[in-house]
Amino acid sequence: MDVRAQIVMAFHLDKCIGCHTCSLACKNIWSDRRGTEYMWWNNVETRPGVGYPKRWEDQERFRGGWKIDGKKVTLKSMPKGRTLANLFFQPNLPRIEDYYEPFDFDYGNLAGAPEGNDQPVAGALSQVSGEPIEQIKGSANWDDDLGGSTLYAEWDPNLPNRELVQKFDTIFMQYLPRICNHCLHPSCVASCPSRALYKRGEDGVVLVDQNTCRGWRFCVSACPYKKVYFNWKSGKAEKCIFCYPRVETGQVNACAQSCVGRIRFVGVVLYDADLVEAALLKKDAELVEAMRGLIMDPHDPQVQQSAARNGVSMQWLDAAKNSPIYALVKKFRVALPLHPEFRTLPMTWYIPSLAPVLSVLGDTHRLLDQGIIPKVENLRVPVQYLARLLAGGNGAVVEEVMQKLLALRTFMRGENLGKPADPEVLSRAGLDREAALQLYRLFTTAGFNERNVIPPQQREDQAPELRRKEAGFGILTRVKSERTDLTQRGGKDD
Ligand code: SF4
Ligand code: SF4
């Protein structure tokens, strides 16, 4: 047993209102500089939709993540021996059209335009060249709220049934907020020839050392989530840093702090690094269970001893015991990883959306009152869509989660209306009354400090062995502890 600590974010998709406050909070703090205009370390996508960059999930095209090669996992983007050949040309990088040409508006013209017969307008200017842009053709959320549009929905690589998009009245729409997943097996780290990317031993945050990065962009290709960006001004790679300067002082990430829907949870999990290699070799459909299996019970004395041997402090152990992430992922099994089949072992988890709960059988509230719970397959969100998004294609895993969420909704509706539901409703879904009340509290009335349990870092107190120890999987990841090297704000602002 080799137990290590990882800081993790979870998202309750039913509660996301698509307001993008999180994206703006992140951008204002971290990527408001020259060269970073098109970077959205946090972005919110409308689903079904194309995402950002467009169709990032299409690994046939982008070749990100890992593949199983016999009894090994290898990078899809970079088979051994091709590193040198691809050093100066990488065919799988997204193009600017896959992102968008960043723009601003010429607001000065509104007040400063010479007198004329026309109302002055603020035309669009390219933030790269400064030249006027005749027609804006895209942005980071160009298809925002257009999940019901056939134009965009049919470009979603996860949509199992293309006919569905033609039926406007039955299509569903939901939001998908995304940050870097700070993966346990990060392909970005493994791909870097300069060894500039690394995963911190103390909390698992994945960072780019700006002093070491040489701008080869292997990481941009290798990340299947396209969460590493190339700064065209500094010539270096940049990515979400999990707000480590905030987290190190016990504060929550800016995106989570600002989240209007209170959909985000932040906490610590303990995982067994000895189990990672076996988990990676599982079939796609088995990966969710394998990932749950990596997360250890923080109340188990053996787990605590192993973690302590690796330098995990008492504060972190206590945080792991009270972690909302442990509760959602492991205890109640309602949170799922985004595209586990990419095999980076992403450490962001999603509670899938039930909404809208109108089923083909009729209005859900009426069905609930009649004691008839709509079947999962009758929900407007197709199970196979969620399975492709969150479960390596395994519909049974999604159904188990959806059953729990439906049972919880039925049970709590009964409680709140003074018409208690049949206890069987919960037990059939693998819950009991106590679990339902705990989950309900987490989803609704839990305060800030219950949704976000972040221990302060005490790096100077940590055992030197931990700092040297590699986080994640074997030789593929690297850990550095020099605090001064961690900043990604090395590039100067203009
Ligand atoms: S591979 Fe994982 S850790 Fe690396 S940038 Fe992509 S999402 Fe982040
Ligand atoms: S701030 Fe919260 S509710 Fe608003 S888009 Fe972001 S994740 Fe969704």
Tell me what the structure shows:
The protein is 29% helix and 13% strand. The protein has 494 residues and is an alpha+beta fold. The strands form 6 sheets. The chain has a 4-stranded mixed sheet with strand order 12-1-14-13. The longest helix is centred in the last third of the chain and has 22 residues. The protein is globular and about 70 Å long. The C terminus is likely disordered. It binds iron/sulfur cluster (SF4) (2 copies).
What's the short version?
The model is unreliable at about 465-494 (pLDDT under 50). With about 500 residues, this protein is an alpha+beta fold.
How many independent structural domains? 1
Question: The CATH topology, please?
Answer: Alpha-Beta Plaits
Basic shape: globular
Summing up helix and strand content along with how strands pair, one would put the structural category as: alpha+beta
The helix tally amounts to 20
Key words describing this protein structure:
494 residues; transport; NO3_Rdtase_bsu; Alpha-Beta Plaits; alpha+beta; two-stranded antiparallel sheet; binds iron/sulfur cluster; globular; Nitr_red_bet_C; 3Fe-4S; four-stranded mixed beta sheet; 14 strands; 13% strand
Would you spell out the secondary-structure blueprint of this structure?
Blueprint: E1 3-12, H1 21-30, E2 43-47, H2 59-62, E3 66-69, E4 72-75, E5 103-105, H3 108-112, E6 124-126, H4 150-153, E7 174-178, H5 187-191, E8 197-199, E9 206-208, H6 218-222, E10 228-231, E11 236-239, H7 244-247, H8 254-258, E12 264-272, H9 276-280, H10 287-294, H11 301-309, H12 314-321, H13 324-331, E13 336-337, E14 348-351, H14 364-369, H15 383-390, H16 395-416, H17 424-428, H18 433-443, H19 448-451, H20 464-468
Parallel strand pairs: 1-14
Antiparallel strand pairs: 1-12, 2-7, 3-4, 5-6, 8-9, 10-11, 13-14
Helix pairs in contact: 15-16
The structure holds iron/sulfur cluster (SF4) (2 copies).
Domain 4Fe-4S ferredoxin-type: 7-35, 171-202, 204-233
Main location: other
Subcellular location: Cell envelope
